[in-house]
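Backbone-to-sequence.
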């Protein structure tokens, strides 16, 4: 991520810090997915619902925050009117996606079919099926789609939203700047909290049941509506004077709303309520976003020698982390450690292994673009 600046040339370091924190939280979350009852590629023999309330603490808003930050970054890049913008962004997003689908992701479905379908072939036998688009790995009426991008779905979604925003600004170059005044009026005062909640609630009431989550880019219309909304919000917010200070002003109110909503959501107090549950999740989702932006702007808007290093590292860590989690979990599974020891071990070793991979990749110019880094290197 580039240094972020507003029209007043104030650096928005806090968006970098939030991005680093969100990707770090993603690693912890995916380790947690191994231990809960929700669907995941592999499951611990100790999987239960114990961690699920804590998983719900971040699940409604974590990816939305990343898309909002990505929208802000894209908006600032487009404001500089760089030549070859989409070509550059396509290289940055699609080369890692290709690398992931071909090299990094395949171990994930391999371990999945071993555990869920008792597949007994060797890994290279599986690879032949993987690249041939084999459709025979089926259970309960659902078949595994191969090849797959699994956790890398964020990359094609972000590329599609970036392309859409680029096209919009090609047709109407001043669109985002013209929207800043409307956003200032629409989200003045406490409306910064409740107007977006109403929009998210409308999406949840109209689209959530009709379009279940797929991560396949084509049919995921509910989440497209949510993620594209926050992506565009980030693109406009970063050009709107005073919006971050306004989030900081309302940060405690937003945090209170988010925590109250989480407490209700996590304790199943709205279980089976349908629209009521969707309303609670909408409150938590936007409240947490405003709280993160507000506290970030208030307390994290400063540089540090580690910021640039960690900010570059998050992309490679994101690309490799889930394969490391799944591979490591299956490697240590025979040890039969209880989750209270095994879980932290997986988190620590995944972070350490991911950073070792980053340290190796960042030194090789030809390899850097395949894990989401620019080709230039200081080594």
């Amino acid at each position: 991520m580039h240094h972020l600046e507003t029209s007043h040339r104030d650096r928005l370091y806090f968006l970098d810090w939030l991005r680093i924190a969100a990707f770090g939280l993603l690693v912890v979350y995916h380790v947690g997915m191994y231990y809960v009852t929700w669907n995941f590629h592999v499951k611990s023999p100790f999987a239960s619902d114990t961690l699920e309330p804590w998983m719900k603490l971040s699940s409604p808003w974590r990816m939305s925050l990343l898309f909002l930050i990505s929208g802000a970054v894209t908006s600032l890049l487009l404001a500089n009117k760089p030549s070859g913008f989409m070509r550059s962004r396509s290289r940055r997003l699609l080369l890692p996606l290709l690398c992931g689908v071909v090299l990094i992701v395949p171990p994930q479905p391999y371990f999945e079919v071993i555990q869920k379908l008792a597949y007994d072939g060797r890994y290279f036998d599986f690879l032949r099926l993987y690249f041939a688009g084999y459709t025979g790995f089926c259970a309960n009426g659902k078949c595994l789609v191969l090849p797959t991008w699994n956790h890398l779905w964020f990359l094609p979604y972000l590329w599609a939203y970036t392309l859409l925003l680029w096209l919009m600004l090609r047709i109407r170059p001043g669109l985002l700047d013209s929207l800043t005044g409307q956003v200032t009026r629409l989200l003045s005062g406490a409306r910064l909290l409740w107007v977006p909640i109403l929009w998210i609630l409308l999406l949840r009431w109209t689209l959530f049941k009709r379009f279940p989550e797929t991560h396949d880019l084509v049919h995921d219309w509910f989440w497209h509506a949510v993620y594209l909304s926050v992506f565009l919000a980030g693109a406009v917010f970063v050009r709107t004077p005073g919006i971050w200070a306004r989030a900081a002003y309302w940060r405690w109110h937003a945090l209170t709303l988010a925590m109250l909503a989480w407490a209700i959501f996590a304790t199943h107090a709205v279980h089976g309520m349908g629209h009521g549950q969707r309303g609670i999740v909408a409150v938590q989702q936007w409240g947490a976003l405003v709280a993160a932006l507000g506290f970030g702007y208030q307390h994290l808007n400063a540089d540090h020698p580690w910021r640039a290093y960690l900010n570059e590292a998050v992309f490679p860590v994101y690309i490799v982390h889930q394969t490391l989690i799944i591979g490591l979990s299956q490697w240590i599974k025979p040890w039969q450690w209880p989750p209270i020891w095994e879980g932290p071990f997986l988190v620590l070793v995944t972070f350490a292994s991911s950073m070792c991979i980053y340290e190796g990749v960042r030194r090789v110019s030809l390899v850097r673009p395949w894990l989401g880094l620019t080709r230039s290197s200081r080594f």
